[in-house]
User: Fold these one by one.
Assistant:
Number 1:
Amino acid sequence: MAEKVLTVKAMKRREMWTAYAFIAPTFIGFFIFIIGPMLISFAISLFDWNLLTPPKYIGLGNFEQLFRDPRIGSVYLTTFKLAIMIVPTNMVLGMVLAVLLDRNMPGLVRNFFKASYFFPFVVSAVAVSIIWTFMFHRDLGPVNYYLGLLGIERIPWLNSSTYSPIAVMIADVWRNVGFYVLVFLGGMQAIPRDFYEAAEVDGASAWRQFRHITLPLLSPTILFLGVISVIGALQIFEQPQILTNGGPGDATRTIVMYLYEHGFKFFDMGYASAIAISLFAIILVFTGLQLRLSRRWVFY
């Protein structure tokens, strides 16, 4: 009997070490590529370092500069404005398109639309931004050409503080909305059809079915997409960098662009790292708030 117990313990120990071996690459990668760079970034933020001379320890001097910087407030405000434009548009448009694709249609047609929506997401953000730079060209762009056919004057999409944020939003949504469509569609197709059949028997309209069945059971998917959408929007870089270079003025200059400029144009690595830490803290707060508030409306 004792030998049998020892054998069972040995098997459990072997299974445990096997499990550790399988998850070890993920943990190692997490610590090397995420935790490690975060700690290094925080360490650099405590120094005055221009990459050319030895770093000089200044303690929290770079964080104090954050509160003295006259531009960082407007840059953060621009980032928040873009996020407010991008996040709801991606979420709402993605859900609407997913609902349309969830309707009865031939599988070949559904797959065609799914591939069409998702294709821009797998294309480089730089390539997408270059395409939209041409599309929004004031004199040669197709967007102004077709607006001209409707009697609308040419719009300076990339040179106006009013229209350039809209141009950045359109480019970002065009590239990313396909991802939201596929995730929403997967969540909808995972909902048991028995609920809808019972609702139809009770005479519930399509809107009532969507309101009382689809939305509640899709709430975990909405939470997931909401969290990653906010994180992605606060870190947007390629579209404003290529479309407008942050202009005019700081109308489309995001905090990641500001970080990049200080780090790789002005070679102020310490201050750039402090900006990165501040962005991490803000993203952490927003994510925590979303997860906290989700207790009230997410159903599992």
Number 2:
Amino acid sequence: MFNIKNIIVPTDFSKLSYSAFEYARDFAERRNAAIHLIYVLEKTPPFLAVRSLDVSEDEIMKSMEKHAKKQLHQTAAILREDSSVQIKEVLKKGIDYEEIVNYSKEIDADLIVLATHGRTGILHTLLGSVAEKVIRYAKCPVLVITPKSEE
């Protein structure tokens, strides 16, 4: 069987992204692997935040980064509940799928576990798919979780 030691779990802090946690945690526990919980922060703040707030772009980015670190820590705590799995909190800045793929190469990841909305048609075309791009460019296996309808 495969020697899985490093598992990447991307999150956007949505309930949807949490659906990948139980799969990743199960793999990690069975293989004594580490989970790298990764969140990718956009390089530039949302246009409306810059235009509507009377603060600099740099201040907005610092605030967003601070908030993201806090959420990342809280999310890691959820993954650690009732488990001895080692969780590494990773915050990157850039384009989501590129940063996930680059990080997977950086740590020589064995598996990426991520959730997808499962959109198709015009909605998929308009929004794109982080999962699809990660699958296309990652050099390690990618497990894509489609949440149950009640999620």
Number 3:
Amino acid sequence: MMGAVTQRFVRASTGGAETFLRADVAPCLLAAGIADPESLRGRSTATYEGRGRPFGFDARGVGRVFVRPYLHGGVFGAITRDRHAGDGRFESEVEAHVAAAAAGVPVCEALGFVSRSAGGIFRRGWLVLRELPGARDLLAVLSAPLAAARRRAILAAAGRAVRALHDAGFDHPDLHLKNLLLDDAQSGEVTVRVLDLDRTVRVDRLPRERRLAGLFRFDRYAAKQAAAGAPITRADRLRVFVAYAGPDWPAREERRAIARRLRRHIGRHARLTKAAS
């Protein structure tokens, strides 16, 4: 059951699809052909990296629209691929986007989802968001030449975005540089948005250890990219953490203790990864 935060969305069955779209844009999206998302690839205005080859297109009365197919990952991904038991996963991500935005977390604007039958109880799904032309993920941004002041501002914005996510109670299972998006094409201000809220869990108050687990996971990914040759320094990673901490959490000495714990965590993970390869 969808929560109260998504009461502005409407359901419809049309063209063999089930749609759950924001009421103010639903007629325009349906007129544009969103009920059959894959048919829109031929008129896409942009394509993106990621599973399922996400793409964007122009919809009259709406503007730029981003479409991301849902695919399974992990061990069973090759078997189940794009087949899902019902629409629950799609609904949950739309709800997470709406709730996060309402809580002040910088995320992309959710327009809804579309699902179609994949045989029996199985469904294929597509997430529909407002596209942000010119926005880039932080791994790509940090891998390009940047003025020092701008680099610092972007890293600080990343730390604040993750802090806002955690303060709102969201535990993101896949927090890393490619799931943070630099969005400064319109206003010129440095805004970093959190991407891919699929499978996020929200609680009333995110416990300290779950916050740290998310930060460690984020930092471990950055350290791994640096080891692979990306120009991401230890100072870059610490700037994200310091911005996350802000003036109130944690105290300086504790911050140093967490940094030491983080280094041990990264080293231990690197040794385990090497042993498994």
Number 4:
Amino acid sequence: MRGLEELGRVRLSPNFYMRDFLYSEIANFYAIPNIPEYPDIAIATGTPLCEELLEPLQATFGRITVRSGYRAVAVTAFGNKRGEGASIEANAAYHVWDLRDSEGCLGAAACIVIPWFADRYEEGADWRELAWWIHDHLPYSHLQFFPKLCAFNIQWHERPVRRIDSFVAPKGCLTRPGMPNHEGSHSTWYRGFPTLSGT
């Protein structure tokens, strides 16, 4: 327990601590510890996630809310078995921060909500406005958008793929390398958005 307390106090960036990413509803409800097996790797991957992606988003749009961050292998396997999440293999270097993916690479993801945009989304704003803003401004690897609150997964990866998917209409892949819309500016989508801060 003392070790978990110390892990939670690890500061990943100016505004984020490891404890911010350890909460899990499914882990808490079913009493499955959501603790990294390899905390040093989880810290090493969570740090650039926070420094390069979450800090600029919070500096630009105001406070962001972390819905889900780190998921232990046991939590991931349990959720997948219940049909409530992807497999361990799919979550390696994604929500399972301390597990390398099939190519031996490191990565980390969090599911977040940006209240500044959630308010606009509730009034009819298109999720693609925020997606294209992030695409044009931040070194993300993968984004995946969800209908409730326009929450989205955002991933840091040491070999970023820069792909955007969505469960919000229009569903599917918005962009990936090789698609005609991948390169260049998409600023017509996000007129009136704040200027990038904190970089």
